[in-house]
Design brief:
mainly alpha; 10 helices; about 0% strand
């Protein structure tokens, strides 16, 4: 799967303003890198286990057949959806206005099915993060402004901030999610050897680090120049596959 970079714009409905994330609540626990591991853990109750990140549609279409094609798929997703999500998460961790970031996420998500999924995951992550880091003003304001959920990477950035993590940490979590979810799903979809799937993720780690660094640099630019400086990489097959997948009468994963 070869990543392509195109800019997409969509009309977004007006949303109530959300104040930028303020100081962390004095009673909120912070865990540094241990909190990073917690956020990146697939067992964190944010709903990601029910989503394949487009892998289910790709398996049915024959684009994922084995470890080699899984690696191609994950690499393409990392450099497109992973880069965009990483930049949005890093920007959220920097304290950029979440309402602006959510509008930017909408404009970078052409497929209605993916926008719905992103907000559903964002709602679940908000619930989990507010339970783990209670009283954080940024998370509380976001939950009030977006009761049906903000885009998941935006929520991830605010959750990272609440946990005492920085923008690069948030970008790493988002980038890892962009590959870890499809790899885990493919084990179930194809009966792929989990050792092979994990080896795919291991081979991608140098690229994942590079994508997280690019995403963080873009977030710092956006802090100075606005959200238009955030990357808008797209992968049309992911968008098309997600829209088709949403109409399937029977499926193993929600997306």
């Amino acid at each position: 799967m070869t990543p392509s970079t195109t800019t997409t714009t969509t009309t977004t409905a007006a949303t109530p303003p959300v104040p930028p994330a303020g100081p962390r609540a004095a009673t909120a626990p912070t865990g540094g890198r241990a909190a990073l591991l917690l956020l990146a853990d697939g067992r964190f109750p944010a709903g990601g286990h029910a989503h394949s990140g487009g892998a289910e549609a790709a398996v049915k279409a024959g684009r994922i057949r084995d470890a080699a094609t899984l690696e191609d798929f994950c690499r393409g997703r990392l450099h497109t959806a992973g880069l965009v999500a990483g930049a949005l998460a890093a920007a959220g961790a920097l304290g950029i206005d979440p309402a602006e970031l959510d509008a930017a996420a909408d404009a970078r998500t052409p497929a209605p099915a993916l926008r719905t999924t992103a907000r559903r995951l964002g709602r679940q992550l908000t619930r989990a993060a507010r339970s783990v880091w209670p009283g954080d003003p940024g998370l509380e304001a976001l939950a009030a402004a977006y009761p049906r959920g903000a885009h998941q990477p935006v929520v991830l950035g605010l959750a990272a901030r609440a946990a005492g993590l920085g923008p690069l940490d948030a970008a790493h979590v988002a980038a890892y999610e962009s590959t870890g979810g499809p790899a885990t799903a493919t084990v179930r979809l194809l009966g792929l050897d989990p050792f092979e799937a994990t080896a795919v993720l291991a081979r991608l780690t140098p690229e994942l680090d590079e994508v997280a660094e690019r995403a963080t640099a873009a977030a710092h630019r956006a802090r100075r120049a606005g959200t238009g400086a955030l990357p808008a990489a797209s992968s049309p097959l992911l968008e098309i596959g997600a829209q088709a997948h949403a109409a399937w009468p029977v499926r193993l994963f929600a997306s």
